[in-house]
Amino acid sequence: MPPTGTTTKRPTNLDLDLVPELHHVGVQTDDLDNCAAWYEEFFGCRTNWTLDTFSDLTLSRLPGITRLTEVTVAGLRFHLFERTGHDGAVPGANTRQFQHICLATGSPEELRAWRERWFRLYESGRFTFAGDEKPTDIVIDADGVQSCYVLDVNGLEFEFTYVPPGGDR
Q1: CA atoms 86, 90, 95, 97: torsion sign
Q2: 81 with 28: CB under 8 angstroms?
Q3: pLDDT at residue 82 in the model
Q4: Strands of the 46-51 sheet, one edge to the other
Q5: 74 Cβ partners below 8 Å, 6+ apart?
Q6: Residue 37 φ/ψ, nearest 5 degrees
Q7: Per residue, what are the HEC states of 6-74?
Q8: pTM assigned to the model
């Protein structure tokens, strides 16, 4: 403890080059089984682990959390967590939130295949969706970038995009 009348200088790391790396995307749901099954089938994810006991910090930040499952595909991880007490509202464009997550595709054909996979799963009737909004059409920007938007079973938006060789966005 420093002597009375002195202050302790807090160490800083302001000179470090800080480069974040995405660890996971957290997805809140009120039906973990439905959500996990959709992520497994749509993205080809596999389940890594599931928790049903949580730290005091987690419980204070996410009241009503009952289960959390990590599903992964390639280097992408999703933490799907079930909470009680949802109001049933679907995320909307005017809500402060991450508006969408964009995932790159390797070709225009792959972009179309993601869109078609969404329709196939939706039309299968095996999943409960928070809304009935269908994927957007595929749009092509002036520089040749192609994209479309789809919603997961919770109403969260994903963009799939194809940037042609030499594109910089």
Answers
A1: positive
A2: yes
A3: 94
A4: 25-29, 76-83, 65-73, 46-51
A5: none
A6: -65, -40
A7: CCCCCCCCCCCCCCCCCCCEEEEECCHHHHHHHHHHHHCCEEEEEECCCCHHHHHHCCCEEEEEEEEEC
A8: 0.85
